[in-house]
Structures are given as C-alpha cells and as structure tokens.
Amino acid sequence: MALLGYARVSTLHQSPDMQTKALTDAGAERIWTDRMSGTRDDRPELAALLDYARRGDVLMVWRLDRLGRSLPHLLTIASDLQDRGIELRSLTEAIDTTTPGGRLIFHVFGAVAEFERAIAAERTAAGVAAARAAGRHPGRPGLTADTIAAVQALDEAGTPRAQIARTLDISRSSVYRSLDQPRSSA
Question: Is the separation of the CB atoms in 59 and 98 below 8 Å?
C-alpha cells in the first residue's frame, strides 16, 4: 500500500506548497502536482497519478475540490478508484474511504448527486411537456429542404462528408441524417 498525494493550483502564479506540506505531513510517499484549472479534463499529473496507482494504494488530496471540478466529476473519479481498489483520503474534509464512515459519506454524496440528476431530468421533461402543450416543438429546428438537397448534391458529386459539413456549416451527423432522407427528384 502506497500513500500517493495529488495537489493542484489553478494558475502558475499560485503555490502548491501548503498542499504538498500537508500531504507530506500525512505520509504521502510521492506527490503529483498540476498547475491548471480543475475544470480541465486534461490534467497530465492527475492522469499520471491515476496510471501509477495500484490496488491497495491511497490517493490523498488536501481538499476534495483539488481533485474534482464538481460533485458528479468527483464521484466519477471516486467510482473509478473504487473499481480499481484504490482508496481516497481528503485531509481537510476528513473523508477516508478506508474507513466505514468515509465510505458512508461518499455514498451520501453519490445519493445527492443522483438526486440532483433525477430532479434535472424531471425539470427537463416538464419543460418539454409544457412547450408541447403550448404548441411549440422543443429541440433544434430541422434542416431546410434546400440544405438537404445541397448535402445530397455535394455527396453525389463525391465531396467528402466532413467537407460537406464544413461547407454548409452543419454537423457531420446532420450530413448523415440528410443522406438518409429520400432523394428529391429535381
């Protein structure tokens, strides 16, 4: 079992020293440090840490917000760690998944996140139903017949589909949907 630390500061001008000292004092054998926003998915040091960590290791952070950008993101990381047999310890919040209490707290977080997703889904469904009741059709408007005809003509001329999308300023999926439409007999 190895105690592995992760520290993150949002800018190059901030210092991770306070975090790394706390992690070292807590027994971290090795610490990975990112200097970038937590909203970014491409944090190289976090990726390196997750690649290095093995079953039985403990990933330590100074505070949970250093690890995840939101509760759902944090729970995704925690779930991945759990699946791999890697424990999580947050020094500030005193959450430690190596203990029954720490696991309970994380399950409560997970339940709250699931509740939030369910509430958002209900609100979306209610909004769609209200729009339909008012005679509106939610979602993106469909492509015009002229745009569909242009897609089909460019495709018949041998234009690559990615180029058709760029030329007509539509998505590639719209190009493919247009090609599934019956061809006009003009």
Answer: no
